[in-house]
DNA sequence: CTTGAAAAGAACTGCCT
DNA sequence: AGGCAGTTCTTTTCAAG
């Protein structure tokens, strides 16, 4: 865990909005020289706070208009069940996120499909046939908004 | 909606793993010249498929060790209820993602907190006081894995 | 689609305050 | 910590085949 000052937070905030900003642009924005801004970004990367940069793909533009969140409860629990489930779920390309959780469910999956008919196919042929699956609950996503989150 | 060939998919796949790759590196990897790879990336951006690049922040390294998913059902429904809820939830910095969903819940929230005690504070003072909140269900995240997802 | 070239900018280094 | 100067690499945009 690293100590962040206001400038670090400002840099993270700016990068959270646009990860393509370089050290020069950041420096100009916050009154630092290019090397100074660069050193701060590098320090944040090395501290592990800035863990990387990920693509934002528009599923809609790719033809995947349906996003569904699934809560899954395993029928049988135990180390083997979790490992079997996790291995099998990785083979389903429509599953974008696998979250191991504690609570009423054991796993939460974010699944994309071309349309509802396509989602039904994925659900019946891929999800419901996963090893150890017990109860399944679905929430269809209407819209999503991301926020920067607390920064230290 | 745009037509993607195998090379486009390969580029998106490589960028999904590491969004910092430039046109030069992509070209070398897939047997294209640097300008050819650059034009493809630009085309994907202009088509809206490649919607941007986002930071990956390590909440753990920032001191936020607890991530909880909340399913929230509103007690009262209607246009005003949704607008009120969405406006109020935006003011909570610990809420990183707000998903409007269809199903047993109306909203799903991804919430980060420093620890369980901090989460209890957020839940009781911020979440449970949101306008119109009915039923709340929580799942504590143990681990998360992201996968590239289907690319066309 | 390619190559080549040129301009601009970004990344990185070393030294100094 | 920050700045300045300088080198090197990449990106971006040409022109031409």
From TrEMBL, chains A, B:
Domain HTH asnC-type: 4-65
GO terms, biological process: regulation of DNA-templated transcription; response to amino acid
Any one Gene Ontology cellular component term annotated for this protein: cytosol
A Gene Ontology molecular function term of the record: sequence-specific DNA binding
InterPro entries (UniProt xref): ArsR-like_HTH, AsnC-type_HTH_dom, Dimeric_a/b-barrel, Tscrpt_reg_AsnC-like, Tscrpt_reg_AsnC/Lrp_C, Tscrpt_reg_HTH_AsnC-type_CS, WH-like_DNA-bd_sf, WH_DNA-bd_sf
Superkingdom: Bacteria
Short name of one Pfam family: AsnC_trans_reg
Keywords assigned by UniProt, alphabetized: DNA-binding, Transcription, Transcription regulation
UniProt protein name: DNA-binding Lrp family transcriptional regulator
């Amino acid at each position: 865990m690293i100590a962040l000052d206001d400038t670090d937070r400002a840099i993270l905030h700016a990068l959270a909005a646009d990860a393509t900003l370089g050290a020069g642009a950041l420096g100009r924005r916050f009154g630092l020289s290019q090397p100074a801004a660069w050193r701060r970004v590098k320090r944040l990367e090395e501290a592990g706070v800035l863990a990387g940069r990920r693509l934002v793909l528009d599923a809609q533009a790719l033809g995947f208009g349906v996003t569904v969140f699934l809560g899954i409860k395993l029928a049988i629990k135990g180390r083997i069940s979790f490992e079997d489930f996790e291995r099998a779920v990785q083979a389903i390309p429509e599953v974008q996120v696998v979250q191991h959780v504690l609570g009423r469910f054991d796993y939460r999956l974010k699944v994309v499909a071309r349309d509802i008919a396509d989602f039904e196919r994925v659900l019946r042929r891929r999800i419901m046939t996963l090893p150890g699956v017990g109860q399944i609950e679905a929430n269809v996503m209407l819209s999503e908004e991301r926020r920067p989150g607390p920064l230290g």
